[in-house]
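User: quick one, sequence for these C-alpha cells?
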C-alpha cells in the first residue's frame, strides 16, 4: 500500500491496482501539482463537504466518487459526477482492491452556497487490503484517514482495537481540528506504527510548528513513528513490514 500526501488532507492511496484520491484540494502550499497534473484515480473518497476538501472534485468526475449519500448526491448535482457510491457510518464497501470502512469524525459539515446543504455526517475512513473481521489478520495492511476531527474515544475503543490501522493520517493544525497535543493522544490511542500529520500550515489559522507534534507523540510514550512528509512525497506502508 502506497500513501502519497499532496498537502492539507489530500492523499493518494494505492491498494493493489486500485488508486484512491481522498479530499482533492490542490490549492495549498505543500504541493506543486494542479488537478490537471494528476492522473484520474479509480475512486475519489470525500470525508466531508467543506471547500478545502472538495474544491477540486470537479476535475475527477471520470472517477467514481464515494462518501455519504448526501455528499455524493451534492457532488453529482453540482460537479457532474456520474458514478457515485453512497454509504454511511459503520459501513464497509469494496472499492476495487480496497476495503473502505467509514467511521464518524467529530466536526461540522454544512455546505454554504446560495442555501445551506446538509452533507450528512463528517467521516474518516480505514482503508485496508482485506475485509475487517473480529479475527486479527497479521497479513492485513490498513491506513486510517481521520478526516477533520477532534479527539474522540472511538479511536481508543473502536478504531484502534477492531479496525486495527497500521498507520494514521491525523489533522494537527488546531483551530478547526485537533492540535499537536490531542493529535498525539489520538496516535497513542490508535496504537498505530506510523503516523502522518496533515491539515496544517495551509492558511494562517492552522499554521503550527510541526516539531510540537513530534514532541507530543514522544511525550505519550507511544511507539508510533512520526513521518513528516514533504508535499507529494510517497510512503510505502507495505515495505514497513
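Assistant:
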Amino acid at each position: 500500500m502506497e500513501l502519497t500526501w499532496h498537502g492539507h488532507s489530500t492523499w493518494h492511496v494505492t491498494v493493489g491496482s486500485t488508486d484512491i484520491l481522498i479530499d482533492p484540494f490542490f490549492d495549498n502550499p505543500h504541493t506543486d501539482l494542479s488537478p490537471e497534473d494528476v492522473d484520474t484515480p479509480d475512486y475519489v473518497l470525500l470525508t466531508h463537504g467543506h471547500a478545502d476538501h472538495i474544491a477540486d472534485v470537479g476535475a475527477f468526475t471520470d472517477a467514481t466518487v464515494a462518501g455519504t449519500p448526501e455528499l455524493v448526491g451534492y457532488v453529482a448535482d453540482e460537479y457532474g459526477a456520474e458514478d457515485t457510491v453512497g454509504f454511511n457510518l459503520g459501513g464497509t464497501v469494496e472499492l476495487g482492491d480496497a476495503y473502505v470502512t467509514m467511521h464518524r469524525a467529530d466536526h461540522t459539515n454544512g455546505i454554504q452556497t446560495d442555501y445551506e446543504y446538509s452533507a450528512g455526517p463528517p467521516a474518516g475512513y480505514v482503508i485496508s487490503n482485506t475485509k475487517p473481521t473480529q479475527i486479527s489478520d497479521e497479513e492485513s495492511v490498513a491506513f486510517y484517514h481521520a478526516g477533520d476531527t477532534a479527539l474522540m474515544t472511538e479511536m481508543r475503543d473502536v478504531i484502534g482495537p477492531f479496525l486495527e490501522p497500521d498507520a494514521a493520517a491525523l489533522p494537527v493544525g488546531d483551530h478547526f481540528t485537533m492540535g499537536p497535543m490531542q493529535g498525539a493522544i489520538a496516535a497513542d490511542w490508535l496504537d498505530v506504527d506510523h503516523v502522518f500529520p496533515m491539515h496544517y500550515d495551509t492558511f494562517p489559522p492552522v499554521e503550527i510548528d510541526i516539531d510540537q507534534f513530534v514532541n507530543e507523540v514522544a511525550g505519550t510514550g507511544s511507539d508510533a513513528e512520526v513521518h513528516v512528509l514533504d508535499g507529494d512525497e510517497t510512503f510505502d506502508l507495505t515495505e514497513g513490514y
